[in-house]
Amino acid sequence: MVRVLLAMPAGLLRGALRFVLSAQPDIDVIAERDAVDSAVRTIRSEKPDVTVLDLDLLSDGHGVDARQAAREAHAELPDSKVLVLVDPRRPGFGSQLASVPPTIGFLAHTAPPERVVDAVRQLARDEPVVDADLLVAALTRKTPLSAKELRVLAVAAQGAPVKEIARRLSLSPGTVRNHLSRIIAKTGARNRIEAIHIARESGWI
Fold first, then answer.
1. How far is it, in rounded angstroms, from Cα 156 to Cα 177?
2. Domain with CATH 1.10.10.10 in the chain
3. What's the CATH number for 147-201?
């Protein structure tokens, strides 16, 4: 029996996965968590065979992200597998696919539940899981940011506030704010810090 932990926001996707996984005679969904920190604690205490982890899952407020949680799970319990679900439109994860251990697999959010079931079984059998389409999208994605937006983000990455960015680039503060808003939207980030993180990981700045 493959014991599975679902670590993802409550909603239709988690409900669908729970229904499909629980219907399998060889899979048991032992717990569901909607924050990374609590998921890590559950991994340590319950030792699931496979954890299905949403890359966009918010932490409990301690700054832990899904990639870090996957690595923590592997470090704590190297025999426990983690299946990370990724939004293929979201940049910033491609550079990490080649460096993760084989016990961490990746699938697109858009993968049908049946594919998730197959991936859970593959990981349980110690087989690597990387969605081919997801890998191609990650490795071929170019920056969606304009040259001006990259300059603004590069200065912001140095810790400069809006007024300082405006002064250095001879822009108005309002223009800088507009650029930052577009940068956040284009990268799919939640805020400026996350946009900087994504841009650095992607090699854009």
1. 11
2. 147-201
3. 1.10.10.10
